[in-house]
Design a protein that fits this description.
By secondary structure, the chain is an alpha/beta fold. It contains five helices and five strands; from the N terminus they run βαβαβαβαβα.
Length: 173
């Protein structure tokens, strides 16, 4: 399953971002997609990454003034693409600065100096999201298999009709 990771590229946030990335990587069935800092077409890479992911994870780190607008934009893109959103929000960020995030998901707060202490809580949070996604993927797969079966049945019927017509019209010659 693919997880788009929305995060800061600032040097002072590197430890926190790497900690959460490593934490997510501990689930061996989660492939992490991160838009690269400094690429030519970041908007396209971000849109493609969000569209192609199974769920979206945002690490919202503290800024002097407010949450970076690109983080809020990516959260909005994930929501509009109907992706499950999970988020880790640094303590002391006002709810008013989080845009639609509080409306679309329950997020977990973190403190840089207490990441390890909250690890079991974060583990349950990620695992619950992971299990929900696996159930949805399983339902989607079952639905797809039924649709394929239905299409195969229709193709068999068309093939029968086509062969009948060939036989009927070839007898006329």
């Amino acid at each position: 399953m693919k997880c788009f990771l929305s995060c800061s590229f600032r040097e002072e946030d590197k430890y926190v971002v790497n900690w959460f990335r490593d934490f997510l990587s501990a689930f061996h069935d989660i492939e992490i997609i991160v838009a690269r800092d400094g690429i030519k077409e970041p908007k396209k890479q971000i849109e493609d990454g969000i569209r192609d992911c199974d769920f979206f994870c945002s690490i919202v780190t503290k800024r002097k003034k407010s949450v970076p607008p690109y983080i809020l934009s990516e959260i909005g893109m994930a929501h509009s693409n109907k992706k499950m959103v999970i988020a880790f929000v640094e303590e002391r960020i006002p709810i008013a600065d989080l845009g639609i995030l509080p409306e679309i998901t329950e997020f977990k707060n973190f403190r840089r100096d207490k990441l390890g202490i909250k690890a079991p809580e974060y583990l349950r949070y990620i695992n619950n999201a992971r299990c929900s996604i696996l159930k949805k993927l399983s339902r989607d797969r079952t639905s797809l298999m039924k649709e394929i079966g239905s299409l195969k049945s229709k193709m068999d019927s068309l093939e029968y009709k086509f062969n009948f017509l060939i036989d009927h019209y070839s007898d006329d010659e």
